[in-house]
Amino acid sequence: MLQDPAFWVAIAFVAFIAILIYVKLPALIGKQLDERASRIKTELEEAQKLREDAQALFADYQRRQRDALATAQEIVVKAKEDAEIIRKASEAELETSLTRRQKLAEDKIRQAEEKALAEVQNIAVEVAISAAQKLMTDELKAKEAGALIDKSIKDLGSQLN
Q: What is the CA 154 to chain-centroid distance, rounded?
């Protein structure tokens, strides 16, 4: 058996394990494994905390987004209300302006009618005066002159209409 290589390999293996136990290598390996497990546990806890923080931020952003959408809708509603108010005010202003312009136009027409009527009256007076002068110059009889004046007055009434 002393010459069998497997025997010597077995003895070398047992001696190697005995040296490892004597040097307390399993305790060192265990300690390192425990430290590594502790680091992994710490990293997992940190990762969990980061995940919770990320979820909280995500929820906060969702809330802000909902708030922003609600604010945007309120702005749109307010803008529509303002536009309607402005439209109504513009319509009222336009109606007032049109009424004022119509009144001005009617006043101008009335003034033009009055002016035309005054001109016609002036012309009629001038015609009557010239007819009277002609009658006087022709020395017509009083009866014929009265008839001509009456006729001019009747014609004046039709000319004024």
A: 70
